[in-house]
UniProtKB/TrEMBL annotation:
The modification 4-aspartylphosphate is found at D1578, D1700, D1845. It is an enzyme of class 2 (transferase). Its EC number is 2.7.13.3. It comes from Methylobacterium symbioticum. The lineage of its organism: Bacteria, Pseudomonadati, Pseudomonadota, Alphaproteobacteria, Hyphomicrobiales. One of its GO terms (molecular function) is phosphorelay sensor kinase activity. Transmembrane segments: none annotated. The gene is luxQ_1. InterPro entries: CheY-like_superfamily, GAF, GAF-like_dom_sf, HAMP_dom, HATPase_C_sf, HATPase_dom, His_kinase_dom, HisK_dim/P_dom. This is histidine kinase. The keyword Signal does not apply. Residues 1529-1642, 1651-1767, 1795-1912 form the Response regulatory domain. GO terms for cellular component: membrane. Keywords: Coiled coil, Kinase, Phosphoprotein, Transferase, Two-component regulatory system. Gene3D superfamilies: 1.10.287.130, 1.20.120.1530, 3.30.450.40, 3.40.50.2300, HAMP domain in histidine kinase (1.10.8.500), Histidine kinase-like ATPase, C-terminal domain (3.30.565.10).
Length: 1936
């Protein structure tokens, strides 16, 4: 066959063309067409393909040129021709035209950017001018370039003129610019104008200074360095002004006014100015020295002093003046030698009779010599006569007297010596008399009366009297005290000052001496020297001090040393400057104002080296070389400098004239010409010199007359002391006058000294001797008198010594030893010794007896031989001893009768007792009487109680333990009375309930019953009004109708019918709960009678229920309150009423049915009669009647059947009623018994709870000490224990832990037995249960080589409803026992149905059987193993261990769960323990527990709270039983069940397996057990502070690496991040935020490498830190600048950053702020690592921005490793082994040095806690009770925290906390409650009282340290412990 050619269908062609027109170039025609159709198809396809290629190419070019910027790219379309090529060319041309102007603009702008302003944009491109927008852009660009060129050239010109050529005032002229260029031009011009003004002002001032015009200063307004230059210039002008004025002043004073010694004081100058000042001062100083030396010598000559000469080094004319004056002095030294010799021999050496031999003298000098000789001869006779008499007195010869004829003072001496003998005869008799009376006769108080004596004699008399008086005072004081003791007055002590044996007696009687004064003299001395007296270099030498005092001493020494160095260095330099040495500068290292002083002085030294050569030359010539007339020739100076030169020249000219005139006059004086005087005009000191020289001549004419007068008075008239008064003389003349006066003075002194001594001896003063320097006969007289004085002194000293020893120091037995005396002096000595011996014997006898009394020996008596007052004292002492003996005997008798024999009422009888002994007797009698009264009162009350009288109580006053006993007995009586009252109430309750039950039995009428109930109940509960509403049915809706009332009055506005929830009656019926109204308003309702009406006080509405259905409502109103007993009675009564009402209702329904049946029967009978009557009439209707009859027959049969049924029901109801009544009686009896049992159980439970709580406290308290101390020993921080000793400590700790576990088991069992445990019922998956048990015991089975199998029977439900925790506890106990008692074989657990077992038949129970092949249990022991503390064999516990509590607890738990445990066992064959449990627990499972039961803090304690969603979540809703290797685990710590479930679902969405913990303890346990990869932590936890938990986790090496997201309701993000948190979320949290946090955690834990940014400018430091921190899991990016750090942060993500503060381009603090402001920078942990010392403000600022601060020191590397490991969340295992030791976190700085007060009544706890805390760097103070703790806090207000035990005697912890919080100063002080009695609600009570946190015993030290760290950080708000403590301490000081 021929194939048919395919043809192109027009429709296909049209369709393709339409697609082509729409732009679909992918359309194609078939290729299998032939002929013309094939060609058309081919052409069409080619066109479509070309269009498709063109579209693609244009798209490519547009993307390459427009998007990618490849402007050289062009379109290409291969195989295109014609229009296609033109199209492509057009597009390429357009691209070129567009690109070319852009390229030009880019070229020009690029050149401008590079500073090339010679480029312009071409307006023509390839001959084609630009147009339109391109032309506008080109012109704009070219204009910009031209303006920039103009601006640059003008600015360059101005800069060149101003900056290089110095042409000031130039301005840039840039026309046509605006905007920024205009601002730039204006700024440049402003700068140039400012510089012009500044430079011109400076030039003006410097020109003025150069011209000597110092009146100008720089006044232009400048800043910056120009301001510094201005200040420098102005300071220089001020210094130059000061220099000029000072030099001018000195020149005027020295050169014009003659004021020598003036010095120029120019402060702050240096250099040449300093040199000029020094030269001027040197010239003035030299001139001053020369002129003053000349003046001094001439003045001395004028005054007669010829020993001085001019010694100053001078030259020139002044040298000639010096030589002239010295020659004059040499000529005045040869006149008075012989006169001086004679005066010396007579007046000084005592050579009486000597005469002056002065040859060749005459005139006045001869007269003077004769007068002196006459005075010496007269004195010789007088002195020799006085010597004779005094010698006789010294020898005891008082018969001689002075007879020489004398006058004046010598006459007074004569009378004195003659009187002395008369006064020496009245001393011995009086002294002898007193000695006899005191020493022999015992007459105390006697005094010697020696009239007219004085001095030594008066002293002797006084010493004897003092001795007698002291002895009198001592003995009388002793007698006074001992008499007072005898009289019972012990308030007195011996206060007399005694010594020796008397002192021993005093000490024996008084018995106590206080010595309290020893510390601060050296510190005070050093502080005074260094701080007050300014003795630099001083150092405190305080030995033996340490601590703060040593620090204070060191600080003071350091301060003194620093100041010494600084001040001495400054002093060296300034002294050198003052001495003209300008080579020194201050080099000491100083700061602050001393640095400024250093700079100032150094600048001054630098400024003193450049000016005064010419002035120095002139000063040297005039002032040094003595070239007078010289003038300074200083050319070219002007202004001030010209004035200075003129002043110096003027000064030199004036001095030249003055010195020459003085030289002329002194030369004339030297030549004996006194007619000349100085006439030159002078001032100042030169004027004084002029006056001195002019006066000298006038002072040489008045000498002889005065000397002659003195010689006559002294030598002839006997007027001693006369002196020549020659005014105005000096030199030799003065020497002569002085020699004469000296001779007279010497003689006067000698005679007066002799007279003074003899007068003193006459007056009894033996302390004086003749001390004047004498010679010759006067020397012999001096020796005689002094010998006499020595002998008298010897006697007086011995008598005085004995008197002092006996009378003052109490040294009895002393005797006076006076050698060489005789006569009266010997008698006196013997009398004194006799008196001392007598007193010695008497006092020693008294001391012996008193000492015996003090030692309790009352048998000795005083038998001293004495008279007078001593005898009276002996009698007093003896009487005292007798009284004391009687007192002791009587008190002993009373004590024996009352205290031993029990004879109450005895009294002590001490006749004659008084004072204190009387008081003591009374006190003892009062004690016996009080005890008698108290004991009899207690006995009386106890007797009454035993007789049943509980109204009595002990009312006697008592205190102490008797008061405690009284309170205890009274409390016991109150408890008995309360118990009796409660029993009476219960009896009343039960009696009345039984009464109502009996009363209501048999009643069938509701109205009667309801009225009867109200009538009986109202008076019983004191109700005055009542109503009774019954529930009725109204159209299917229950309503309450009033059926009975009591004293009820109708009210219009109140209905007698209520619906549900209508009114209180309807609401009560609806809620089925009692409603009690108290304090009813007055207009609510009234209770009325015939006499009046009033509003009730209480209204109660009661529902009457039967099987939880409301039957009725009773409402009662009363004037009184419904008591608890009434309310309980009403509640129980309503139950009985409900039963009765239900019974009556059933009876009424039965009766109703009976009546209905009877009615139907009667109606039937009437109808039958009618039928009979009409039967005849209805025969025709027989058929229908027959039908009716059949119908009626059927109805009758049915009625009969109904009647039978009703009769049967009535019979059954009657039976049921009788059964109900019988059961009611049984219930009533059982209820009564149950109530009694319940009361007993409640009481027993309360006693048991209290006992267990107290026992818990008493057991845990010593356990706390044991566990803490044993843990400290096992840690061996000091390294001083051997391994064996550490093992001992670990064994002790393990034993304590086991004991704690045992205590917890006992408490657990107790709670279970008391029924106070609630169960947490939920769905428990059997598979999860099996996996958990398998995981728990598989390892144990392998270790013990036992087979272990768990079998689950098929067909069991997937889950059961029970308490998962309790079920696992029971199974763990059973399996643990099985493994414990099985040595070989196997252990198995089988879970199956209980159907078929003999104990639990039925499929709704399951059996869990634990079978072992162990030792087995004997049959007779199988019962006791379930009892507490019981095991099958007494040896079992010793062999296998254990307490015997496990099975007891398991059995009780099984019963709580509604099940039971049974055991099957044979000895040696093993045992099977089967736990039977229902699949669904009974309804009463999980009953509430008593609120008073303690919530034990033990590990196995039952957490007793009601089942909730939160409880179910932790056990079954999380993934703890579905975790496998490789899973990512997140631990959710959240107490809100709903929020925890949300977090769990979100975690699962992000691929995590979730664990839920609702408290801190559970979180720690889960974290250690499961080791999660991430944690979300809610801060508000029920059992502990979330911050403390965070701290615990971050300080535990096992968990510190886990990233923790903190979730809190407070915005404390910075605090969380500083504490090591990975992130922070604030509640309420959005879903997206939680997802981001979980995703961030997932990303972090899956990322193997952590990125660390290191910013350190020191390359060596950077390298060493990188080497320290670099590991496989840490990648370090190390940079040296802040800019590089910011760039790195922009380009990458980091987990931590280390920043040094000293960066070259930007401060570290500012870098941190920029990082915080950047994206993701807020949460980046930043560690500041610096070696710079930080100020307080810097540290505070950094702590607000950085995470932590590390100062570079010896341990900084360890801290850096530690902190980076924390913030990078590195596990310890990932850290190199060598570094793991370094990063084990030591105690943070916030605990180091903190002071903590520990208040606990148990010293063991104080010791253990103190030891533990001190190992962590804390200082611990302690107190043993609350009041002492508060006193300790007040005495030490600088405290950081307090640990307070709650259970303390006196003031407990709650009261103490409240009292501390009441004080403003301690409101923020962290108070941490610590107790071993962890009752339910105790934590809340502690926090409510004001505690900051709560820790229970035994104390977990890690938890306690975490709480302390958190509280201290919270108090400071900075994380800085040091800042915490300073702030706290400062506020404590302010409060004080």
């Amino acid at each position: 066959m021929t194939p048919v050619s395919s043809q192109l269908e027009p429709k296909l062609l049209l369709k393709s063309l339409r697609a082509f027109r729409r732009g679909d170039f992918s359309v194609r025609l078939p290729l299998d067409l032939t002929g013309i159709d094939g060609e058309i198809a081919e052409a069409f396809n080619d066109i479509a393909e070309l269009n498709q290629g063109l579209a693609k190419e244009l798209d490519r070019v547009a993307r390459a040129v427009g998007k990618d910027g490849r402007i050289g790219e062009r379109g290409k379309l291969p195989a295109a021709t014609g229009g296609w090529v033109e199209c492509v060319d057009s597009v390429n041309s357009m691209i070129g035209d567009l690109v070319q102007p852009t390229t030009e603009v880019a070229r020009v702008i690029g050149a401008v950017a590079k500073g090339d302003l010679g480029q312009t944009m071409q307006i023509e491109i390839e001959g084609r001018p630009l147009r339109g927008e391109f032309l506008r852009i080109g012109k704009v660009v070219n204009t910009m370039v031209d303006q920039l060129n103009s601006f640059a050239s003008e600015v360059t010109r101005v800069a060149r003129e101003v900056g290089s050529e110095g042409k000031l005032g130039g301005q840039a002229q840039v026309k046509g610019v605006g905007g920024t260029w205009k601002d730039l031009t204006d700024n440049v011009n402003l700068m140039a104008a400012n510089l012009t003004g500044q430079v011109r002002n400076i030039a003006e001032v410097t020109t003025a200074v150069a011209n000597g015009d110092l009146s100008k200063k720089i006044t232009v307004d400048v800043k910056g360095e120009i301001l510094d230059l201005k200040s420098t210039f102005n300071t220089m002008v001020d210094q130059l002004n000061s220099f000029a004025s000072e030099v001018t002043r000195v020149a005027k004073e020295v050169g014009t006014e003659g004021k020598l010694g003036g010095q120029a004081q120019v402060k702050g100058v240096g250099g040449v100015w300093k040199d000029l000042t020094d030269n001027v001062n040197m010239m003035a100083e030299n001139l001053t020295g020369q002129v003053r030396n000349i003046a001094e010598v001439t003045t001395a000559v004028a005054r007669g002093d010829l020993s001085k000469k001019i010694t100053v080094d001078v030259k020139g004319e002044i040298l000639a003046l010096k030589l002239t004056i010295n020659t004059m002095v040499d000529q005045l030294n040869s006149f008075a030698s012989e006169v001086t010799r004679v005066a010396r021999e007579v007046g000084t050496e005592g050579k009486l009779g000597g005469q002056a031999q002065v040859e060749g003298v005459g005139g006045t000098w001869k007269d003077l010599t004769d007068n002196v000789n006459m005075m010496a001869a007269n004195l010789t006779g007088q002195v020799r006569n006085i010597a004779d008499v005094t010698t006789a007195v010294a020898n005891g010869d008082l018969s001689k007297k002075i007879t020489v004829d004398v006058k004046g003072e010598i006459l007074e001496l004569k009378n004195t010596i003659n009187t002395m003998v008369d006064q020496l005869n009245s001393f011995a008799s009086e002294v002898t008399r007193v000695a006899r009376e005191v020493g022999s006769e015992g007459k105390l108080g006697g005094q010697a009366q020696v009239k007219g004596v004085a001095g030594t004699w008066a002293d002797l008399t006084d010493n004897v009297n003092l001795m007698a008086e002291n002895l009198t005072g001592q003995v009388r004081n002793i007698a006074d005290v001992t008499t007072a003791v005898a009289n019972g007055d012990l308030s007195k002590k011996i206060t007399v000052d005694v010594k020796g044996e008397i002192l021993e007696l005093k000490n024996t009687i008084n018995t106590m001496v206080d010595q309290l004064n020893s510390f601060a003299s050296e510190v005070t001395r050093v502080a005074k020297e260094v701080g007050s007296e300014g003795k630099l270099g001083g150092q405190a030498r305080v030995e033996g001090v340490a601590g703060t005092w040593a620090d204070l001493t060191n600080n003071v020494n350091l301060m003194a040393e620093n100041l010494t160095g600084q001040v001495r260095n400054i002093a060296d330099v300034t002294t050198a400057v003052a001495n003209g040495d300008l080579s020194k500068k201050i080099t000491v290292d100083v700061r602050g104002e001393i640095l400024e002083l250093k700079s100032t002085i150094n600048t001054m030294v630098d400024q003193l080296n450049s000016f005064a050569s010419e002035v120095t030359r002139v000063a040297r010539e005039v002032g040094t070389e003595g070239k007078l007339g010289g003038q300074a020739e200083v050319k070219g100076v002007g202004g001030v400098w010209k004035g200075l030169t003129d002043n110096v020249n003027m000064m030199a000219a004036n001095l030249t004239g003055q010195v020459r005139n003085i030289a002329e006059v002194t030369t004339a004086v030297a030549n004996g010409d006194l007619s000349k005087k100085i006439t030159v005009a002078v001032e100042g000191e030169i004027l004084e010199l002029k006056s001195t020289i002019n006066t000298m001549v006038d002072q040489l004419n008045s000498f002889a007359s005065e000397v002659t007068r003195v010689a006559r008075e002294v030598g002839i008239e006997g007027k001693l002391g006369g002196q020549a008064q020659v005014r105005g003389v000096g030199g030799t003349w003065k020497d002569l006058t002085d020699n004469v006066n000296m001779m007279a003075a010497n003689l006067t002194g000698q005679v007066r000294n002799i007279a003074e001594v003899t007068t003193a001896v006459a007056n009894g003063d033996l302390s004086k001797k003749i001390t004047v320097d004498v010679r010759g006969e006067i020397l012999e007289l001096k020796s005689t008198i002094n010998t006499m004085v020595d002998q008298l002194n010897s006697f007086a000293s011995e008598v005085t010594r004995v008197a002092r020893e006996v009378g003052t120091e109490g040294k009895l037995g002393g005797q006076a030893q006076v050698k060489g005396v005789g006569g009266t002096w010997k008698d006196l000595t013997d009398n004194v010794n006799m008196m001392a011996a007598n007193l010695t014997g008497q006092v020693r006898g008294i001391a012996s007896v008193v000492t015996a009394v003090a030692q309790g020996d009352l048998k000795r008596k005083l038998s001293v031989d004495a008279k007078g007052e001593i005898a009276a004292l002996a009698n007093t002492v003896n009487e005292m001893i007798e009284t004391l003996a009687t007192f002791a005997d009587q008190v002993t008798n009373v004590a024996r009768e009352v205290g031993v024999e029990g004879k109450l009422g005895g009294q002590a009888r001490v006749p004659g007792a008084a004072g204190l002994w009387r008081d003591l007797t009374d006190n003892v009698n009062q004690l016996a009487a009080n005890l008698t009264t108290q004991v009899r009162a207690i006995a009386e009350v106890a007797t009454a109680v035993t007789k049943g009288d509980l109204a009595r109580s002990i009312a006697v006053e008592a205190s102490g333990e008797v008061a405690a006993l009284k309170d205890t007995i009274n409390e016991m009586i109150r408890n008995l009375r309360d118990t009796t009252l409660k029993n009476a109430e219960q009896d009343w309750l039960k009696t009345n309930l039984a009464k109502f039950t009996r009363m209501l039995q048999g009643e069938r009428d509701l109205a009667t019953v309801s009225n009867m109930i109200l009538s009986e109940i109202a008076p019983l509960v004191s109700a005055q009004r009542g109503v009774f509403y019954m529930v009725e049915d109204d159209a299917g809706e229950p309503v309450l109708d009033l059926v009975a009332s009591y004293a009820f009055t109708e009210r219009k506005n109140l209905s007698n019918r209520y619906r549900m929830r209508q009114g209180l009656v309807g609401q009560c019926a609806y809620e089925k709960k009692r409603i009690l109204l108290t304090n009813v308003p007055g207009d609510y309702v009234t209770i009325g009678s015939a006499l009046g009406e009033a509003a009730p006080l209480n209204i109660i509405v009661l529902p009457v229920l039967f099987e939880q259905e409301v039957r009725a409502v009773i409402e009662l109103a009363s004037f009184n309150r419904f008591s608890e007993t009434h309310q309980s009675f009403l509640d129980q009564l309503t139950e009985s009423i409900g039963i009765v009402l239900n019974t009556i209702a059933a009876n009424m329904r039965t009766e109703g049915l009976l009546k209905q049946s009877q009615l139907l029967t009667g109606e039937l009978q009437s109808r039958q009669e009618e039928l009979k009557k009409t039967n005849d009439r209805l025969e025709l209707q027989a058929a229908s009647l027959q039908q009716s009859e059949d119908l009626l027959k059927n109805q009758r049969e049915r009625l009969q059947q109904t009647n039978e049924e009703l009769e049967e029901k009535a019979r059954l109801l009657e039976i049921q009623k009788r059964e109900v009544e019988g059961k009611n009686r049984e219930v009533s009896v059982a209820k009564t018994a149950l109530e009694e049992k319940a009361e007993q159980l409640t009481l027993t439970s309360r006693y048991k709870s209290q006992f267990l709580a107290n026992m818990s406290h008493e057991l845990r308290t010593p356990l706390n000490s044991l566990l803490i101390l044993s843990k400290l020993l096992s840690e061996n921080r000091d390294g001083n224990l051997t391994d064996k000793q550490r093992e001992f400590a670990k064994t002790i700790n393990a034993a304590g832990t086991d004991l704690l576990s045992l205590i917890n088991d006992i408490l657990d069992l107790s709670k279970i037995e008391s029924g106070t445990v609630s169960l947490e019922i939920g769905d428990v998956a059997l598979q999860d249960l099996v996996e958990n048990l398998n995981r728990t015991f598989r390892q144990l089975a392998e270790e013990r080589h036992l087979a272990f199998e768990i079998a689950v029977e098929p067909g069991l439900p997937r889950s059961v409803r029970t308490d998962s925790k309790r079920l696992q506890q029971v199974l763990r106990n059973l399996l643990s026992n099985a493994f414990k008692f099985t040595e070989t074989g196997s252990v198995s657990l089988k879970i199956g149905s209980a159907e078929g077992t003999p104990l639990r038949a039925g499929s709704q129970w399951m059996a869990l059987s634990v079978t072992d092949t162990g030792i087995g249990i004997a049959e007779d022991k199988q019962r006791i193993i379930f009892e507490a503390f019981q095991q099958a064999d007494g040896t079992t516990s010793r062999k296998y261990g254990g307490t015997g509590l496990g099975l007891a607890i398991s059995r009780e738990i099984a019963r709580l769960l509604g099940g039971e445990i049974v055991v099957e066992s044979r000895v040696g064959a093993g045992s099977t323990f089967t736990l039977f449990l229902p699949f669904v627990p009974p309804a009463n499972t999980g009953a509430g527990r008593a609120p008073e039961m303690p919530e034990w803090s033990g590990t196995s304690a039952v957490i007793g709270r009601q089942p909730s969603g939160a409880m179910a979540l932790s056990a079954s809703a999380d993934d703890r039983h579905a975790i496998h290797t490789g899973d990512y685990i997140v631990l959710i710590v959240e107490d809100d069940a709903m929020f925890a479930s949300v977090l769990l679902e979100l975690a699962r969405e992000r691929g995590f397996k979730g664990l839920i913990a609702q408290d801190g303890a559970g979180a720690l346990s889960l974290a250690h057990r499961f080791k999660p990869h991430a944690i979300t932590l809610d801060i508000g936890l029920p059992d502990m502070d979330g911050w403390a938990l965070l701290d615990l986790l971050k300080n535990d090496p096992r968990t510190r690496h886990i990233p923790i997201h903190v979730i809190s309701v407070n915005d404390e993000k910075k605090r969380g991040l500083r504490a090591g948190a990975f992130g922070f979320l604030e509640k309420p949290v959005e879903r997206e935020g939680l997802l981001r946090a979980l995703e961030r955690s997932r990303e972090f834990i899956t990322r193997p490498v952590r990125n660390l940014l290191l910013v350190e400018d020191d390359e060596n430091q950077r390298a060493s830190m990188s080497a320290l921190l670099s590991e496989e899991d840490v990648k370090i990016f190390a940079v040296g600048t802040a800019s590089a750090a910011l760039e790195a942060l922009t380009g990458g993500r980091f987990d931590c950053a280390i920043v040094d503060l000293g960066l070259p381009d930007l401060g570290g603090s500012e870098l941190i702020e920029r990082i915080r402001a950047s994206q993701d920078g807020e949460e980046l942990p930043i560690i500041v690592y610096t070696g710079r010392e930080l100020t307080g403000a810097e540290e505070q600022h950094l702590r607000q921005t950085a995470s932590t601060i590390i100062l570079k020191d010896t341990r900084s590397s360890e801290r850096l490793l530690d902190e980076t490991a924390l913030f990078l969340h590195r596990a310890i295992s990932r850290v190199p082994v060598d570094d793991q030791i370094l990063i084990e976190r030591t105690d943070p700085a916030c605990l180091q040095g903190c002071r903590v007060i520990l208040v606990d009544d148990d010293l063991r706890n104080i010791f253990s806690l103190t030891s533990a805390l001190e190992q962590h760097g804390l200082e611990v103070l302690f107190a043993e009770n609350g009041r002492d703790g508060i006193a300790l806090l007040e005495a030490n207000p600088i405290i950081d925290a307090m640990l307070i035990d709650i259970m303390m005697p006196g003031m407990d912890g709650y009261e103490m906390i409240r009292e501390i919080r009441a004080r403003t100063a301690f409101r923020s002080l962290p108070l941490i409650a610590v107790t071993a009695k962890a009752m339910k609600g105790d934590r809340e009570k502690c926090l409510e009282a004001g505690a900051s946190d709560y820790v229970s015993k035994p104390i977990d030290m890690d938890q306690l340290l975490a709480v302390l760290r958190v509280q201290l950080e919270r108090r400071s708000g900075t994380g800085n412990g040091a800042a915490v403590r300073e702030g706290a301490h400062e506020s404590a000081r302010t409060a004080q």
